[in-house]
Records
---
Amino acid sequence: MRFRLDWLADHVDLSGLTPDEIGDLLTLHVAEVDDVELPGGGWPGVVAGQVLGVRPHPDADKLRMVKVNTGSGEAEVVCGAPNVAEGQMILFAPEGTTLPGGLVLKRRKIRGVESAGMVLSERELGLSDEHEGILVLGDSVAPGTPATEVLDASPVIVVDNKAITTRPDLWGHYGLARELGAVLDRELRPLDVGDVAEVAAAAGAPTLEVEISAPDLCPRYLGWRIGGIKVGPSPDWLRSRLEAVGQRPINNIVDLTNYILMECGQPLHAFDSRQIAQNKIVVRKSSPGEKVTTLDGTVRELPENCCVIADPERAVAIAGIMGLANSEVMDDTTEIILEVATFEMVRIRANAKHLGLRTESSVRFEKGLDVEGVPAAAHRFFKLLRDICPTAKPMGGVCDVRSDPLAAKPVRLAAEWVSRRLGTEIPDARSVEILRRLAFTVEAQNGELTVTPPSWRAANIKIREDVLEEIGRIHGYDKIEPVPLRGDLVPVDIEPERAARARVRELLSGAQGLTEIHTYPFTTKAECERLGIDPGDLALKNAEQPGLDLMTPSLLPALVKALSNNRKYRDDVGLYVTAPVFVRSDEQGALPSQPERLAIGLAASAGQDLLPELKGSVEALLELFRIRGVKVQQASADREAPAWLHPGRAAVLARGREVLGWFGQLHPRVMTALDIEGEAAVADLDLERLRSLPPGSEQMKPISRFPVVPYDVAVVVDRTTPADSVEGTLRKVDRELVRNVSLFDVYEGPNLPEGKRSLAYRVVFGSNERTLDTEQADALRQRTNAALEKRGWSVRSS
């Protein structure tokens, strides 16, 4: 928004303040000001001059030599303007002047004749695009008078629209002047609407009929027939003000509607009354497939339930957005129908977006305008119309149709609460004074304020914090002394469940290199049955997607589905999810239990063995929670693997007889059903039970000062032999000198008998008391081989 300073000064006294000071006040108390513009940069060096003589250019037919009295001497310049004449008062820029476009004037020769400056047009002054001739001033101007004293120009305050997007009352000069009056404690002059009673008496009864068939889209519509119109150019003052705020002058009627828009923030529209059938306006909803031609000449199909202004025969405007070409004011228009209305804000925004038409009117209507401001805008228009077109007269009274008004709701707050929340002492009388300056109605009683906002603020003053903000900004946030924060810092209680969940995520997303996914807590019967999981019967009554109505009893359906989707785009996939599942309680009437579980899934191309990696992640979790006494055991006849695991490559995580989870290779049937290529392994763990187990004791051991001796040994065993059985055998070789045992390779394939596999381990020997010599190391290797062979396993050592 652009606000012209002299326009604001029409409504509130701004004497004694510079443009920059006014800009600072607005930024501190109302809305951030982006810029304070001086027209033409203030035109430094540009002065009024009198043309003393005009003679032809000696070497150019279209150029002339103009002698100018600058008030401090005479100068002769080359000029191509056709309207320059002796005796005129013009504006002159001497050499060295910087013009608004950035051009620096220098003494130079034009077709062989030296020119010492420039006689200026409106475009060269930055006033408009007019450049067909120079700007001619009135005869009363004295030569040498600075341009700023001659031209009808005023500084412009620029406020970004986003800064006032929630303040529709600030989208016009009068609303901003109201705020300045409150900030400066200066009286706001009443809007000059003329003698309304006299006009009403002369107009008599309305001669225009207005029918609102869509009251939900149009709370108020005022229509008024006005005759005696003479369409023509607007006076200079009107053109100048509109151009300063970014509006292009068209004619006196259209310009005046735009002037009221920029002054009151209330859009107006003028129809040529000849084009309104039966002298009747109908506010209705659009018909299906209805098409119209807007003022810009574009044919547009209206969206469903779009608010339309029409007569009994056809549409004449898209309400609140743009008029139609079939009813615009023409050069020969002698009678208009003036529209001043308010429309439902949400629908205006939706329609403007659908049509790709965001106009000066629509951006105001979509903010929510003051219904009570309609009559004032109409009478302000008529008052100014009579000033610029004295023959204008009402052809009957206004026809003002409205729904029941929404009364502003009072807000109650304790007076002492204001000071406490703002952090500074504000006397009750000061709060009341500020609110009344802003036109709020205030009742103070027993230390409590009952505040009722004016109609133009009713939409955004709802709670006591809104009132507090009004007091604080007018009082001045800059007047509040900063005070160091004081208070007791109470440690936040740690939630064990949340802390454990965070540690799991840190481990799996970090060291284990997995990606966390988030899934819906719903599943389908088909997804569960593909994995052999009982879907249960906990169903939703209002499922958003047909079939997706079961509360999931397991994380695996969603995890395996995600594995399948990701495997199509990546060779290696590692995912995990932690979330509650839903299990019906055995107790009658009890709510379902929601134990938290953890599911891990790995997928890769064919031939890769994913089980060691998955087992490593499971063991890392056990180490994370310092769990002791939990063992990884291969599935057996008394502990059959779940249906979603390969029966020969499945392991159970157990503590005695208590099962804490399962992991292993995904069953080939599931792989086929979900079209997963390559290899896949999954784990389903009871995270809630794992984190609740008592942690084992930690015993610190000193780091050995003596070197260790590694020994790599490969053991050929039956495919069904658990790896932990081999590891247990290796650790028992010497409980003191075997420092560590780790599996680093699993091989199945050529060079091995059918049904066999090779497990390669690194065994680390060492002592805390001495360095093992060669004989001792050899003895340990031989004992290791002997222990393995005693179990009937073949040994391949290095």
---
Amino acid sequence: MPTPARRQYLDIKAQYPDALLAYNIGDFYEFFDRDAEVAARELHLTLTARTFGPDELVPLAGVPVHAIHVYAARLVARGYRVAICDQVSPAGRGLVRREVTRVLTPGTVVEPGMLAATRETNLAAIAFGKRDPATGIPRAIGLAWADASVGAFGCVQWPAEDLPHALQAELARLGPAEVLISKPVADEEALAADWLGAYRLTSCAEDAFEPESARIRLCRHFNVATLAGFGCESLPLATAAAGAIVHYIGRVNASLLPLLSDLRTYETRGFVEMDGRAWRALEVVEPSHSEYASGQRGVTLLSTLDMTRTAMGARLLRRTLLHPLRDRATLEARLDAVGELVGAVGPRQRLGSLLDGLGDLERLAARVTQGAAVPRELFGLASGLSRAPAVIAALEGCDAAELREAQAALDPCDDVRELIARAVADPSEATGRRVRAGYSPELDALVESASETRRWIAALEGIERERTGIRSLKVGYNKVFGYYIEITRPNLSRVPSDYQRRQTIATGERFVTAELKEHEARALHADERIEALDGELYAGLLMELARAHPRLRQTAQALARLDLWLAFAEVAIARRYSRPTLTDDTSLEIIGGRHPVIEAALDGVEFIPNDTQLADLNAGAAQSRAMLLTGPNMAGKSTYLRQVALITLLAQAGSFVPAQSARIGLVDRVFARVGAEDDLARGLSTFMLEMVETAFILRHATERSLVVLDEVGRGTSSTDGLAIAQAVIERLCAVTGARTLFATHYHELAELAETLPRLGAYHMEVAEREGQAIFLRRVSPGASNQSYGVQVARMAGLPAEVTARAEALARNHLIAGDVTARVAETAAVYDGRSDGASGADELVSDADRELTLALASMNLVAMTPLEALNLLFSLQQRALASLGMPAPRAP
């Protein structure tokens, strides 16, 4: 039979079976049973045991109360949910009452020590509509997300024709720490292997996602009769997802609900669409792990551009880069703001000095509304608000609409600052109270009464020494016996009759008097009442300040926008970025473009700029819409592809760009297939994944898209790879019409430029000196005539005899299919009949012998007519070359 204490724990744990229960006992939070084993393993704690009753020995692991958030943060970061169970009744006789006060989950943490300062912590919820029996794809999907640390709350719904890529793209942008789905969806076995399994999923009861229940829940939460004002009344699945978030937050930490004071309904079609792999391939906010990565560990476009001065500005920069826009008017307004700050030295410098050291007002305001802000945070909030008038003054005379709007949105919140200054105790004074003296007469009277009592107790020692004549008499205090008068053993005969013995110690006795006990009781009662009243007053103060949350958040967001425009301006000045010209056509013209990340990493070393010219679709078939870029590995093809995509993204984020000039027809999507990856968890090899992504691009790219493809077809045989690459570039040029950059090592494809409309052939320039390839990093018209693979292998450190042998084989055309000749020559070399390059030259110096060996190697029975024709053409080229005659072009 469990003891009462054990029964209390088990009852509470039964309410949170999917969480680790941190159970407050005195100065520790204890984990029991299986939770203790998990906590000990994950936190490197000592696993001990505790007895409950005579027969039950329970595993135990504990952490100090003051460090719970440090340890809980580590558990949450590993994907666990932690239920914090606190004592809610004073310790005394009988069982202390306890209850779970909050549940920490990856998507709902708001404690400052558990949050990344420069990125959001988003909680997402997905509501799936009924599936189409034919395709298995839901007929519609709703998504909602919330960042409880600042009170952001939004939702969106997509029809079937936008699925599933729209949901994938939005999740990639949001990067949610936790995703809520209904339990029936979570139980589907197919989901575990799907892309959604990459996120931390939390299953909720199905009724949490029921649209009508969610609508009623949201109306109750916002205290409205209809959701029409929020724009989601006709979006049942978006409503369902938003309602699920409110339901979940109310269950795990209801104190966060007041932060969700508004719901924004939006459409993703206003953003440039990209999937998760494209974001990674371009290293926008996360570094790529492919062999084509920038080479700088952790260096991304975000880190390169981050000259923001505040945490809220850094978060806005990240959101802005992940949400490039299609609306030219909005982008022009952003560029106007950046441009004005670039040209206005005085305002730029004043604004920078005012933003330096500014606290995270956005999250501080949320802490106030949550009722969790401490005095130090309130003083930080007031200090930040005090800069608003100076910021307003610094923006006087600005012409850009974005700057004027930010100036108008700045509210110094004088009433908030005045209340904090008048009511909140200075934390540096260490009084132990949160309410300032003079704010509450009742509290001041209690404090004065307690002070008088303590002054009387402090004077008691001198009074009693004089009364008793005992010079060694001392007045002391301990937690067990309270205040006492201590008399040493030799002086016990002189103890007055009104002293009452309290304790015997080795050196004497301790006594109390009736008057001392009365003053002690008065002091203790005053302390308890002071603490309680101080808490009540401070809670009321936070409630009063919380009413200003909309104004506080508006001011914080205005400051964040100013920080962002200022950062864009300072990057533009420091790195010689220029303002792009945005158009509504489908052209793309970049003069002197540079890769922003690599250029910054070069630290002063000159980056070789390159141009890009892709004509508008209506410019005529003679104008290039696609670039076929050939050249060896290491020559810079991937860098060039990435820089064009990044320049386009920067322009559509509202930033100046690393180029001498840029004229960019707004894109609707950016597709980037750059680098070699696999997805073995889904059973996709490198080549299979490449084909899956290429198929997606070919099906979804439009004439307004930008397509960046690198080395399509490299994961299979040369014959198949070349055929696939040609078919893909033909489709993009002749059917899709998208602006395309297609890098390949198949330099044979460059001949397509002569017959395929809208395709231009370009190559990476390479100089060769004494057998060494020198990569010039310049893009020039025309095709590359060789791959320089042996030179790259030599640079990589392959043994000299291996590269010499490879060079001989390549020079004598034995790699291209002459199996018998290659085998014969290899036998000659390794039998000692030849010594590498000279032996190979001797073996193939006779053209007749070469052709004979080639013919002997043919398997005519297994050949297709096309393969036979290609082989015959190859033999003809060799025969003509041996006679010194020019070879004809391939058909």
---
Amino acid sequence: MNPVKKETPNPHNQDIRRILLRYLPYWPVFTGLFLLGMTLSWLYLQSVTPLYEAACKILIRDEKKGTQNVNSLEEIDLLQSKKIVENETDVVRSRPLLYEVIKKLHMYAPVYKEKKFRNRLVYTSSPVIIEISDPENLREALKIKFKYDAKKQVVIIRQQAYALSSWQKTPYGHLRFSPNEKYTFIDGNEEYSFSLLTLKSVARGMENKLKATATTKLSSIIMINYRDEDPRKAEDVLNTLVATYIKEGDKDKNNLAANTLAFLEARLKIVEKELGDIEQKKQQYTSQKGAFNIGRQGTLFLENVSANDRKMSEINMQLSVLNEVENYVASKDNSGGVVPSTLGVTEPLLSELVNKLYNAELEYEALKNTTAENNPILLSIRDRVDKIKPNISEMISNQRRGLLAGRNNIAATNGMYASELSNIPRTERELVDIDRQQNIKNGIYTFLLQKKEETALSRQYIVPESRTISYAESTDFPVSPRKTMIYGAAFIISLLLGIGIIMARETFNDKIMFRHEIENSTGLPVIGEISTGGSPDPIVISDDKKTFIAEQFRRLRITLDYLDFDKAHHKKILVTSAISGEGKSFIALNLALTLALTGKKVILLDFDLNNPSLNNKLNISRNKGITDYLLHQCPLEEIIFPTDLNPNLSLISTGHLPHNPTELLLNGKTEVLLNQLDKLFDYIVIDTAPVIPVTDAYILSKHCDATLYIIRHGYTPKVFVERIDENNKMNKLHNVGIVFNSVSARGLGNNNYGYGYGYGYTFENSRKGRYNGHAAT
């Protein structure tokens, strides 16, 4: 048969059990702190405004991301200027856009309703919407109380009635009170209040609650979040912000298209006039000279020269555009202007650089109103602008040199043709010259007209640079403050605070509280534990008593075997302690009675010659006692008194208190007394003085078989226990065992005893019914 393997206890479980047993007795402390924490958390949540969060997404046409998917509208959009997502996250939060949102939603005049702990914003349930005629210059005012009379359709401020839907002159400026379509009439006597806030202060608060971030590093989608105490307001703010952002982007492109069209139309008017003049000149010339036919040589010359002249015209056109661009780049302040058109310039890199310069300057102007001048992002954009301009200037110079060289070549070719033309009759030569000019102007006019149509088409089908992917949706529950987090933190803080209070109380306590403190301080064994009796009666054990403390004394009687006390000649027990008040007389009396209950003859000696107490506990006179015997004033028989507690228990009291108790113990009679009693009784229990103030216990210990050293829970100083071993080396106490006395309840309850062991045994008593023993902690 296989032996049964003994299960070893889990150290982790033991640690948890030890912690629970240590702190459970203080459950009222934890309960009180928990209730206090929950109450404070509830009050905090009532005083703090809950915030809801709304979120939406917009798609940005980034010049570095997602450019491979270009639709047909984007292909004809000659005015498109792609953006950078990282920059647009700051543009979305820029002050000009926020100001527009504030004015559209009238956020400068929030309406509140009075509540017990805090004022509540009534964005959707306000009876009126308040507008001011000049939001940029309003005078700030806080908590202006008003009432709404639904029957008369008026707003009452300081007993002054103001009609709805019209501008009214008030002490706070020109205001207009418009009915709120979402308002449901509840009580005409409800009182509201509104405030007038500057656009700057409202925008500052919005910036703290507004967040714009790219969804991923490779994405051109921006997620915009906004928090507000009203979920509907949070959604309206985001939807209005996105609509304003997209509208401003389209406005910039429309301005660019308008300027380009204006430039083309102005040029067309000039060329159209020049072309009309040439046609009129040709008509007059042919009618005067009769030159209607040109020879073959003149025709060929005309074709060649016309081709060169068209090239010359295109070059001049490009030089004109380059001059316009150069003037734009050379301007110190381009914030109010729009980049001139680069139509006709054959170099695509120049157009790209001009568009980048324009976008960078727009971005710089947008951020300049929302950030400080030394902001790193602003400085980075300014540095980018300063680097693009020299590149454009250098490219313009290179283009101009190439165009001028080409124009010179064409002029030289035309000069050669002119010399050949000298052989053509003068009339024919002049007519050819007029036709050449007419062809040039026709080419220029056709080119400008084509570019005008392309620009008009691009303007008509402008592709938005941003579009909304998902409109704003608010959370169903507040995101701040988080109730579960607040209550959870209150619970944890209450728990930690309770543990800290208990640990501080026990750490700074200089008294012995736990058995392990005794075991850590001395090598002497702890052979017994006695709990508090709960009664003023010093006698806690009798033949018919089955209480918890009575059983502890019975257990102590058995544990005396640990001190080899079961031998025939080992019968003298000395009971002492460190200081007075630790219960040595209580232990000695009840231990003696416990031994007497076994049928053994027991004698109890009150050897505390300084402060005896057994006489009073047993109501026995101390006329004669130990001192009388030691002074040879009476025989042994005259000092032994039987007790009423048990026929087997007798007492020898102190007698008259001597002037020199220590010297009296050393006169040799003490040993004689104990030897005589050893022959008459089975057990001798000696109650003596504490060892710290006097040395009586050390004198008596050498005549005894065992010494019980009493330590009292919550009373004995730790320093005395720590010095037991050291003192015992110099003044030997014989065969010492420690009894941990008066182990009282820890915490605020009465059912758990101090240091960590549980008992749950139920005793039967024929006369008193049932008695449940205390459970020690």
---
Amino acid sequence: MESRWYAAWLERGLFHASVEDPRPPWSLVIPPPNVTGSLHLGHALNNTLQDVLARHKRLQGYNVCWMPGTDHAGIATQVVVERELAREGGTRQELGREAFVARVWEWKARSGARIVTQLKALGCSCDWQRERFTMDSGLSRAVREVFVRLHREGLIYRDAFLVNWCPRCSTVLSDLEAPHRPVSGRLYVIRYPFVDGDGALEIATTRPETLLGDTAVAVHPDDERHARWVGRSLRLPLLGREIPLVADSFVDREFGSGAVKVTPGHDPNDFECGRRLGLPMVNILHPDGRLNENAGPYAGLPVAEARVRVVADLEAAGLLVGSREHPHEVPHCDRCDTVVEPLVSEQWFLHMEPLAGPAMQVVREERTRFHPRQWEKTYFHWLENIRPWVISRQLWWGHRIPAWRCGGCGDWTVATQDPSQCEHCGAGDLAQDEDVLDTWFSSALWPFSTFGWPDATPELELFYPTAVLSTGHDIIFFWVARMMMMGLHFMGDVPFRDVYIHPLIRDAEGKKMSKSRGNVIDPIEVMSAHGTDALRYTLVSLSAQGRDIKLGESQLEGGRAFVTKLWNAARFALLNLDAGIPGASAAQGRGARGEPQPREGQPGSLYDRWILHRLDRALAETHAALDAYRFNDAAAVLYHFVWGELCDWYIELAKLALQGDDPAARQATQSTLQDALAGALAALHPLMPFVTEEIFQALPGGNGRFLMERGYPAPGAALPEPEIREMDELVEVIACIRRVRGELGLPAGVRVRVTLPTTARGFVERHGPALCALAQVETPQLADAPPGASAAVAQAGGFVVQVALDDPAFLADEVRRLEKTLGRLEKDLAFVAGKLANDQFLARARAEIVNAEREKHGRLAAEAEGVRERLARLRHALGATA
């Protein structure tokens, strides 16, 4: 049924937001998945939560625009197509740039829609008529416009700077794309002799091969051990160059000898030191990671091989003092996991500090709010320590940088349209920069470029700023902060009012999911096995703010069980509903313009009024929870209403009228049952869209309208407090009797005798049939006599409830059951007591474990004492009936 209903929604245009729609606008943009991607659990979670919000707002009467699209994913996509070429025995260099880019577009047309198809299978109600791609013509125009404006403002500039370089991908990476990961390296201590032969300094390093690019040795200016030597020259080991001993405060006096090698071309701190002191920048690396001619005899070697050779030669020359194991962290490419090399390279940069201030200010002013608020600290930390963003990438796939270098004067012309001559000297010898922009540059424009910027479109006017962004904490830096900066700079307003950071999904034991562990759950397989609604409900129900999700088979089975419960309730309702029930209409809810529609008909019984009162309360609590992004609370509210109040209570109570002889009562109950079920379907629809639509369309009176068109039912008249209390009493009394039956292990169908005080006469007159049917009791007796020895006594609903236990067979069975229970409890109690009496256990176990055992001992002791008391009472009663 899933594909059938999804196609029907698309055909009706229910996901499309028209600028002519008079309803209030509400919008959000999808975090564009990589065009190379396929649906994983993170996608399933985030897009389900966004769909819940979108469908919820549609049901509330909003003109909802959920903007979809995909990201061109520069490095990832180029790698995929290069691998495809490699399998065919070719390379992109052999193809040439133009043919390679055409090949990528061909791949995108063939394979790039996979994740969009999977998002549709998940039920995502995106406005697919507006689907965008970060390299389509409109967005490409926006990218050029932004680049040119920022360049004219002096925020984009070109400079030679030390960057993170991936030898495998042959491109520069930002700090965010080069996460540090632990490696088991070594720390080498090397002697650097003074040129005059008077001693040497010992230098410690984890990268001995980089000494080939050293241009100085540095000490701290306040380090008295070395102050008198500053200015002297040292002999660079192996290559023999003379390098100076300099003083700079970046040196850590406590590390090693207090002297460090300075390699400005291959270390960030050394680069800054070299700039301050005017040291030469020596590059020893080719872009592919091999050493170049500046490495002398080591030219042509890969870094790892060069390290082995350099260490061996240092040892042979007597310059290696020693080495030891030294675990440390080094940057790796987050795409191919290659060790990243620091490299001086001429790149395009975006100066971020002027943009960061306003982005922090709007969050402090709560013009944009984070949910949970704790993630504001992460956001602020990055912006407060922001560095220039290297925005150029040495790739062929992506937005080519709109800058042309003049062959005459050498200056750059930056323009939105391809220029015919240099803007500086007028020459026509122009060559466009070979580089492309970082993928995140175009993604940063997503909230306004997708709506048509730089044109002043009706969509941009209506839907910007968006209401909420739902995303993961790992791209707060990559994306959230950058969208905020760009939105404020170019639109003059925040791109979204709220930022919801969704939880992470782990396995049932709380471990991170990974293919190597074999604990990855494929959402496509889950949707096939359990149904999409079960997966969606499970993910929503577990999405508590600030807590990771532990997901296993048991949770998924629970989601499926809930869908089944709803299905079975609907089957019962449909068997008991007549076509054309007066006062009942499945289409009741909101009108075409979103205005509330009053509930028709007036239900006849207290039970009817009570369930609609509970529906109104559940809807109000659901609205409040979703408005606060407390998705799990919304799921819990609806679970309690549907499973507990609608299925376990109202449907059972409704059977009295449906199976009775009073036509008016039957008709009123039918009307209420349909209204309550339709309301429950509307409430659940954002979470479980397919099964709710299937059931809704089977109800009488649908008139061909879909749930999204129907809207939420408007609340009815409030239920008076006395009636609420009376229903609470009824539920409590029935639950009390059921609890006693459960404790006795009484089989279904066996009725027990119940006595209530005479003050409950009116209560019994009104609800006697309900008590008999739902609690499986004989007609309740009224008496104020003290309870007999064989009666179970409980306080419920303001009454003293006595359940007679004078059947010897029941009593004997219960005594035997309680004796077994007591034996088990005493055995467990003795085992725990033994542990607590063991001095070695108390001394060695952690305090929390000892405390847990003590709590367990108290709990078992109290439970055993309660069983003993029940046994004594039942044995006495059994003797009295013998």
